[in-house]
Amino acid sequence: QYETSGYEPTFELSSEDKQKGESLLKDMGIKNSNWYVTIHVREAGYRGETKKNTLDNFRNSNPLNYLKAIKYITDQGGWVIRMGDNSMTKLPKLPKVIDYAHSNFKSDFLDVFLAATSRFCIGTPSGYYTLADFFGVPILLTNLSWLSPYYTLAKKDLFIPRLIKKNNEIMNIDTLLENPYIFLNSDLDFKKYNVTSIENSEEDLLNATIEMMEKTSNKSKLETKTSLQEKFIKFTENKILNLTNETFLGFGNISSNYLEKHKKYLI
Prior knowledge:
The chain is α/β, with parallel strands linked by helices. Helices cover 35% and strands 13% of the residues. It is built from ten helices and ten strands. The protein has helices at 15-28, 67-75, 108-117, 128-134, 173-176, 187-192, 202-217, 227-244, 256-261, 263-266; strands spanning 36-39, 79-82, 97-98, 121-123, 139-144, 158-161, 163-166, 169-170, 195-198, 253-254. Strands 3-2-1-4-5-6-10 form a seven-stranded parallel β-sheet, sandwiched between helices. A three-stranded antiparallel β-sheet has the order 8-7-9. Strand 4, helix 4 (128-134) and strand 5 (139-144) form a beta-alpha-beta unit. Helix 1 packs across helix 3. It starts with 14 loop residues before the first helix and ends with a helix.
């Protein structure tokens, strides 16, 4: 169904929404001629979650690790709008970066409008990136400790998994796609099986952002895959089919730079 639909976005903005949003962008200092990237990095703080009681460290990340990627975007002429709420770590003040999560601009309307109109969205395994996806905006999904969110992605999207360690050794994808590891879905699960996830490095996040910038600057490259990316998709599909007797199709691409760097664990 996804393929035969032509990958049409689920939603689009009305002309009234566009006019309202463009007026608010001006208030934020962003001109109609400017382009921007939204970024949402999940932290403890949602629904009463704190750093002490969270069971979601396996999908929480440090937003300061994204500063090199943010600076790269602004150096290329774009703006970066950091999404979220005021429970999050504040970003340092940087040119052409709006820490929207801590601003007076924040509203339900702008949460959606900014997602819908960004060049692409850098996200983590949390709810926000799906808003951008609903409007057909390319996604760079980062810090995946498990593969389930990968299967929400489209051909235009990229992702970076985390490396997973057990007894101080990095586990390979062949083992991670077996029971019980494929089903780990909370910090309690990770602790039970004595595994930990390693957050994406600043360099890995930067390189994936560079890759996404290149893809979104040339639409003909948006859905292209390298031979290693194709190999990763086929391997994961076959592995899960053998495990579950169900077909799970992967459309999104793993970051080619990250895959090349860690191919001994990922293919």
